Amino acid sequence: MTADLRGFTVAITAERRREELAALFERRGARVVSAPVITIVPLLDDEALHAATLACVAHAPDVVVATTGIGFRGWLEAAEGWGVGDALRGGLRAARIIARGAKPCGAIRAAGLSEQWSAPTESCAEILEKLRTEGVSGRRIAVQLHGGPQDEFVGALRAAGAEVVEVPVYRWTARDDAEPVRRLVEQIVTGQVDAVTFTSAPAVTALLDAGGDRAGALLDAFHAGVLAACVGPVTAAPLRDRGVPALVPDRARLGALVRAVTQALPERARRLTVAGLPVELRGHAVLVDGELRAVAPASMALLRALADQPGAVVPRARLAAALPRGAEGHAVDMAVARLRSSLGAADLVETVIKRGYRLRVSA
After folding, report:
1. Buried b (16+ CB within 10 A) or exposed e, 57-78
2. Model pTM?
3. Do 233 and 297 share a domain, yes or no?
């Protein structure tokens, strides 16, 4: 199996670090579509974060849950900008700080603070279990959110008797320019994208919302085979809630996400031996004996229809129905001619006079 992404198209919905993510996929041969679906509210303009910070300064929390490194750093930097940085750090120094993994730990230590416990699985569910086991009734807990509300986590703490201060660091909002997202929705629905990557749950929700009257078709595309790849289980939750299977790497890191996609997409490729040559159908291209051959959308649709019945004669009418806009016999003949030219081997597709075409696959 070829462990690369030649011939596949990968969409990136992230705003932060999108250039880095695109470079990682392009280095593996993928065609990349970049369409950030959300943007970050500037911290110093965020009134909700300001209010939560002042609440923690006025009444220091007993426990602080740091969920992301960038979020924890951003919180302290915003507090500095408001002139309460020292006061906030003083309160945090007296609190019990719990981290959701290695990155928050790094941010905590860089601020001259220290965590008392870090969740090995980097999940909020594990933090919740530990806190409830220890008992939180009557305790004041500050929860640094990561991009959006965490109603289930916060609600469970409150139900157990805790007083919770939600700290909404780097809150997300929809981008002003929605056209790239609308184009991405159309590309997903029409099968022009093989995988869509997500690095935050709000980005998933924003893309599904952007579907509008095509939201059903968008979900159908994910169910039908467009790979939804999420950096972690929290990011995947909005998709899984809708029954969409999501690829989640073992570690919530961009590198792990890229490796998971690089392994998963080639495994989905269709492989045949045609006229004695190994042929592999990928998203927008075909590997013929290991050589990548770009194929136009109409010719690729026709090739997939032939590959669905390998070795069998497929009538012109059925092939016409497989073309993107439908067509008559002459259009099919033209698409076959272009397909043969693209594949670089005319004998891979055989003409069966008065009946149709077939791939030269041995029985």
Report:
1. beebbebbbbbbbbbbbbbbeb
2. 0.76
3. no
